[in-house]
Predict the structure.
Amino acid sequence: MNAAPAATRGTTPPPVRATAPARTAPRPSLLGLDPATVATARALAARAAQPVIDLATAHTTVSVERATLRLAGLTGADTTHRAGDVPWVNRVVDTVAEHCGLQHGVSLPVFHALREHDLATLTDLAEATAAGQIRYTLPTGAARRRAERAARTAVARGIRTIDRNRAQRDRLVARLGDPPQRPWIYLIVATGDIDEDVVQAQNAARAGADVIAVIRSTGQSLLDYVPEGATHHGFAGTYATQENFRIMRAALDEVSREVGRYVRLTNYASGLCMPEIAVLAGLQRLDMMLNDSMYGILFRDINPVRTFVDQRFSRQVHARAGIIINTGEDNYLTTDDAVSAAHTVTVSQLLNECFAHEAGLADWQLGLGHAFEINPDLPDSFRLELAHALLARELFPHAPLKWMPPTKHMTGDVFRGYLLNGFFNLAGALTGQGILLVGMMTEAVVTPFLSDRDLALANVRYVLGAAGNLAEDFRPAPDGFIATRARHVLDQAVRLLERIVDDGLLTAIATGTFGLMKRPPDGGKGADGVIAKAEDYLNPAASLLEEHAAREEPRP
Amino acid sequence: MTAAPPTRSPHPSAATEPTASTEPARYVRPYGDTTGDGMVQVSFTLPVPAGPKADGAASQLAKKMGLDPALVVHSHPIGADFTFFVVYGKVGHLVDLDQVRVVEREYPLLTPAEVNATVKRLLRRKLVVVGGCIGTDAHTVGIDAILNIKGFAGEKGLEYYRELRVVNLGAQVSVPDLVRRARAEHADAVLVSQVVTQRDAHILNTQQMSAAFREALGERRPLLVAGGPRFDPMMADELGVDRVFGRGTTPGEVASFLVHALATRRGPTPAART
């Protein structure tokens, strides 16, 4: 980083490759990790994940079906409904479920009805549905083939929009350039009002932020629909809507040209509408999405099967859209102990990697999460942090790792918090993290003041500037504290993975393995939105995305 | 979790002056590096472009805040339109310790570990909490902030507490359902959240709820707790509940209250006095 980012950045030649891994040349293991142990850990993770992948493949959800209709071009909401604005996709999917069930997918009945009633658009069909004029049925024979063809054409159009957005991002990155340094600097804005967010986000970008995350309104994850339009009243955050996405992306495009680097936009593909929000992100060229395989289950008490099904579809969309996902392992450390539960982070990262690869995501798209949450009063707490951070770095050498700041031990003593954030930044620089979420000294006190954010960025700039490429000189003693600790955590992770393979991942989740939360597979919110697929289930989005995943070569 | 402070006693001693064993004086001033110097440090941002005029503006504000002399020791621009300042200065005000009135919480704030330990000792089983939004209210923000493990304001929700069993019924729970479920789960405490206040819906709903519990369970009713941003904590009697929590309440406060109230119900035990 430089003190005057806008000025110097304009002259920085754009990097050769838009999405280069954090490290240009792979370096030898600093921790002396045994390649056989690493391979065992990955193999165990794959075995633990497989039954869940099978489960996810055998089911669909109301949100996957709604996402499919969004890809097919259905937008807008029923403004006359007594419950307020109900998105058309919800009206249609609920009605199809009522008339002929969702086990065959929503596409066949919908496109059959479109033709039968000779309606021009899906919106016309949705309006007719709301008026009670449509009776959905499952077509057979030639009618089925016609409906299938029409659905595929419509969905392919949506996917082409996503492809065009990806190409547009690549062009903008090539023209404007990536951030000149790693880690990328990730800042959060959250006012509740999208117009106010725009002002804050543009200012943050001018002050050096490379990635802007717009935090969602509290409770959006538990809404079983995506709100519509530009919104101005959120609780501690701004609703994720297609229009809000569009407004913010346009604002960041504007400021990207001004600061001479492509400023990325992040939102949250999580909660009950994960697949739909992933689609909206692809349609509006968002660049990163929070998308964890287990966060909703553990921390929002969303049904595990619902989450795994939704997660798989949303990751297929992210893979296609060239979106970098951010996983949420940092959360385990805020509920469990950051030292004794360090290996649960490693296990979750390995599982997230496995689920992500299966859904077609490449390594450069895996912002696997971890955090600086060890009690600072522990002796050697910083060395422990370095051990854990370096372990993640070496286990996932090509993933851009998301490094999360301290929250649990931020007490309101802003001066101490500022120092702690400095050490967090140093650990990030020293261990080659890819994405650094800027810590606020006012964590747990107030929403950050303008000056808090400015001071936080000054902290990052100083540490990254002063440390420079210190990672190059950082060679932990081969059998010293850091290397030994990292190997120990990996061994613990392997043992836990063995247990998960034996018991099953769903059982492990049910018994409180992650973040101390116990979530049984049949419990949680949104369970009634999970449907076992019938033999003749059809979803053109899923097939188009899967064909893509099979074709796509992982980037070097 | 806000790690360090939660165990703090609810009655902080008045020993703000580092006068060791001697009784603190009744009148005190801030302590910079000498007794009675009145020195303080503040920082703030003004929507003024950086420059001499901005520094002058900061100095004026500091003087109006009672800092005299005020020393603007640092200023720097935040973007084109704002300037950040650090100001040191002397305040003339005296603090009269006899005039200090603090809000008395009738129970100590406990850490999750202390809550768990107390529940274990007191009940020898888990404490069951049933919660939800009653009436037509669909705003689960409040109840989720208290119950979900994710929590609020850096504190984990009640689900995080090993010795609490939380049943979160979510939004739009009818009162009969709430009573039925509370009875089936053998609830020790029922938490209801009310955000919507149109036509005093929050008050009427809560009164209806407490009346239903009294009718169904009489003296054996669970502890009733109401929460919401527009409730006045003084309204407990009027609402027929044991406690009302207003805006900004954290899960730790609720958990601490629950164990305190249960201990009190069961008569004084050593646990209740910690």
DSSP finds 20 helices and 13 strands in chain A. Confidence is low (pLDDT under 50) at residues 1-25 of chain A. Residues 213 and 266 of chain A are 4 Å apart (CA to CA).
